[in-house]
UniProtKB/TrEMBL annotation:
<keyword id="KW-0675">Receptor</keyword>
<protein>
    <recommendedName>
        <fullName>non-specific serine/threonine protein kinase</fullName>
        <ecNumber>2.7.11.1</ecNumber>
    </recommendedName>
</protein>
<dbReference type="InterPro" id="IPR008271">
    <property type="entry name" value="Ser/Thr_kinase_AS"/>
</dbReference>
<keyword id="KW-0067">ATP-binding</keyword>
<dbReference type="GO" id="GO:0004674">
    <property type="term" value="F:protein serine/threonine kinase activity"/>
</dbReference>
<keyword id="KW-1015">Disulfide bond</keyword>
<comment type="similarity">
    <text>In the N-terminal section; belongs to the leguminous lectin family.</text>
</comment>
<keyword id="KW-0325">Glycoprotein</keyword>
<dbReference type="Pfam" id="PF07714">
    <property type="entry name" value="PK_Tyr_Ser-Thr"/>
</dbReference>
<feature type="domain" description="Protein kinase">
    <location>
        <begin position="342"/>
        <end position="569"/>
    </location>
</feature>
<dbReference type="GO" id="GO:0048544">
    <property type="term" value="P:recognition of pollen"/>
</dbReference>
<keyword id="KW-1133">Transmembrane helix</keyword>
<keyword id="KW-0418">Kinase</keyword>
<dbReference type="InterPro" id="IPR001245">
    <property type="entry name" value="Ser-Thr/Tyr_kinase_cat_dom"/>
</dbReference>
<dbReference type="InterPro" id="IPR003609">
    <property type="entry name" value="Pan_app"/>
</dbReference>
<dbReference type="InterPro" id="IPR000719">
    <property type="entry name" value="Prot_kinase_dom"/>
</dbReference>
<keyword id="KW-0547">Nucleotide-binding</keyword>
Length: 569
């Protein structure tokens, strides 16, 4: 069995219970993987009752799920977890094909059971059931707590925290959770330390960040320097441990599991680190690393100061080779300061170009910074294309490029900040889509159409965007749309109306057929993409999911057939 996402097509595989025992229509009791790939969150597996989280397995540790040791490889099956650029999924395969097993989502008593057929008794034997107890119920004790089914009461505040409402806590009203004993201050973040907890289910990863290439020491340094980071851990416990995952904000849905190997390091103030809790070992860290970090930082600054002249000279030579354009140049120091040294908590997302960060300049202006990744699928040519192209474009429905930074290997684009993210954030999310009423959707489509008209007809250059899609339509504070991401755009000169390329660039589901198959593109290619976006904003579904419920025919093909039938008649 395989549960998860195909990131290339958007296909989600999950289990859904019937509405009831007599109605096989899909109900609201579901089981599947959830995460946000754009933000590099740690994937988690949830059972939901409608929109409400009901149970969580805990993140994959390399051996099993941190909150469900029973889902590790057993006498019946081998379990595995795959997370790469193409897909993320959990799977288990039978070791013995002669053994008959099944998984049942029971929408009546709200359990997920795994059963095996026992031939001598000719009956199904249950070998795994979740939730197992009250500590398995999602966030049973509230935030910043752990749940210990062996204790009475089962709910306990984490070290350094106290009940938010003690009067409720005393009558077993735990849902409001716990708050810090002392209010944290970012000014004293480097004086905090981390307490090591062993045998815990890792917190809900909705507000997490995963970096599989970092070790535990690097993970700690990242968390220590970010005052919103509350905990960190290895993402893989095999061997001596590897990978890094950090959590921001309140920690949710933690429980004690004495047979688990996972360690979790939770942030506390230095004054709170000396208390002793049974079953938990405190490891005081931070002072040595803090001192070493300062020394390294001073050394880095000295080296940078010495090489500043050489870097500026090299940068001047590089930029002198480019065409002349009127665009402000920002220093790397200014952008690094605006984004808190490209801090994780300022990261807005990531695309083919590289990560995008939120920042604030010294004058208070908020900006969005696109940072060219060295491993980017796009490269320096796309960077130059966007710089030279957008600098010459001015329209209310095109994103405004404020400047760029080219220093050494660092190449950055600085844009106006769009507080309402992108169009796909609203139209594809069931909750957010309710905020986008029909008149506003129509206004957004009209705005995008005006932007396209400017690119195709009214600007001094005829431009084909080639990657028009909902995620490239940004929304300002008044929900006005602005077309962005011109890295793949092409310009036409004179009487040229179409072009041809062997390098197909764009997003499947939005590309016109003649472009996707033959490399032919024109302004009509953008019009095709715009039409797909119109369907998406009306239906609330991604183009790759347009599918007739009873037939293997896409919506577009069905419409085409009907039009043909009308013409024939």
């Amino acid at each position: 069995m395989k549960l998860g996402w195909d990131l290339r097509t958007g296909l989600k595989r999950r289990l859904t219970a019937w509405k009831n025992w007599d109605d096989p229509c899909p109900g609201n009791f579901t089981y599947g993987i959830e995460f946000r790939p754009q933000l590099h969150t740690f994937p988690d597996v949830y059972i939901r009752r409608g929109d409400t989280k009901f149970y969580r397995t805990g993140s994959w540790t390399g051996i099993s799920f941190s909150g469900s040791p029973s889902l590790r490889s057993s006498v019946f099956f081998d379990s595995g977890f795959v997370y790469n650029d193409d897909e993320v999924y959990f799977s288990y395969n039978l070791k013995n094909k002669s053994v008959i097993t099944r998984m049942v989502m029971n929408g009546t008593d709200f359990t997920n059971q795994q059963l095996a057929w026992f031939e001598p008794e000719r009956s199904w034997q249950v070998y795994s059931t979740v939730p197992r107890d009250q500590c398995d119920v999602y966030d049973f004790c509230g935030v910043n707590t752990n749940c210990n089914i062996s204790e009475s009461p089962a709910c306990q505040c984490l070290r350094g925290f106290k009940p938010k409402y003690p009067e409720k806590w005393n009558i077993e009203g735990y849902s409001d959770g716990c708050v810090r004993d002392n209010t944290q201050s970012c000014e004293h973040k480097n004086k905090d330390v981390f307490v090591k907890f062993s045998g815990l289910k890792l917190p809900d990863s909705s507000l997490s960040w995963l970096a599989g290439q970092l070790n535990l020491e690097e993970c700690e340094a990242i968390c220590l320097n970010n005052c919103t980071c509350m905990a960190y851990a290895n993402s893989d416990v095999r061997g001596n441990g590897s990978g890094c995952v950090v959590w921001f904000g309140d920690l949710m849905d933690i429980r004690i599991l004495h047979n688990d190997r996972q360690n979790l390091f939770i942030r506390v103030s230095n004054s709170e680190s000396g208390r002793d809790d049974s079953g938990v070992r405190a490891v005081i860290v931070g002072a040595v690393i803090g001192g070493v970090s300062v020394i390294l930082l001073l050394g880095y600054c000295i080296c940078r100061s010495g090489s500043k002249g050489r870097t500026s000279e090299a940068t001047t030579k590089d930029t002198a080779k480019e065409k002349d354009f009127e665009l402000p140049l920002f220093s790397l120091a200014a952008i690094s300061g605006a984004t808190d040294n490209f801090a994780v908590y300022n990261k807005l997302g990531e695309g083919g170009f590289g990560p995008v960060y939120k920042g604030k300049l010294e004058d208070g202006q908020e900006i969005a910074v696109k940072r060219l990744s060295l491993s980017s699928r796009q490269g320096i040519n796309e960077f130059k294309n966007e710089v030279l192209l957008i600098a010459k474009l001015q329209h209310q429905n095109l994103v405004k490029l404020l400047g760029c930074c080219i220093q050494g290997e660092e190449k950055l684009l600085i844009y106006e900040y769009m507080p309402n993210k992108s169009l796909d954030f609203f139209i594809f999310d069931e909750g957010q889509s309710k905020l986008l009423e029909w008149p506003k959707r129509f206004e957004i489509l009209c705005g995008v159409a005006r932007g396209l008209q400017y690119l195709h007809q009214d600007s001094r250059l005829r431009i084909v965007h080639r990657d028009l899609k909902a995620s490239n339509i940004l929304l300002d504070n008044k929900m006005n749309p602005k077309i962005s991401d011109f890295g793949m755009a092409k310009t036409f000169g004179g009487d040229q109306t179409e072009g041809n390329t062997n390098r197909i660039a764009g997003t499947h589901g939005y590309m016109a057929p003649e472009y996707a198959f033959n490399g032919l593109f024109s302004t009509k290619s953008d019009v095709f993409s715009f039409g797909i976006m119109v369907l998406e904003i009306i239906s609330g579904k991604r183009s790759i999911r347009f599918h007739h419920e009873n037939h293997n025919i896409t919506t577009g093909m069905e419409i085409a057939k009907r039009r043909k039938a009308i013409r024939t008649d």
